[in-house]
């Protein structure tokens, strides 16, 4: 059985060990924030406005696929 070489002090009841949260640099976070923002905008477009005044695909298949989601989010589609 291997054990850590760092000594551990017993904790008092009700106390938890301190946890350090690492800082994430903005340069590493920005591309992910941009990607998720664009993805969310695309999903919102297809749920809210596609098959309306601006339509990407012809037909009603997409409208019927997101129909209940529109009503759940409060978008009128009739």
Describe the structure.
By secondary structure, the protein is an all-alpha fold. It has a domain at 46-78. The protein is built from 3 helices and no strands. The model has no long low-confidence stretch (mean pLDDT 77).
Short summary:
The chain has helices at 26-48, 61-65, 67-73.
List its salient traits.
78 residues; mainly alpha; 45% helix; 0% strand; CbtB-domain containing protein; transmembrane helix; membrane; CbtB_put; transmembrane
Poorly predicted segments: none
Could you tell me how far the N terminus lies from the C terminus, measured between alpha carbons in angstroms? 68 Å
Assign a percent range to the helix content: 40-55%
Mean pLDDT: 77
* Spatial extent as radius of gyration: 25 Å
- Characterize the overall form: elongated
> What composes the largest sheet?
none
Order of helices and strands: HHH
Strand % is under 5%
Question: What is the β-strand count?
Answer: 0
Number of helices: 3
Structural class: mainly alpha
Protein name: CbtB-domain containing protein
Keywords: Membrane, Transmembrane, Transmembrane helix
InterPro entries: CbtB_put
Pfam families: CbtB
Topology:
Layout (H helix, E strand, L loop, with lengths): L25 H23 L12 H5 L1 H7 L5
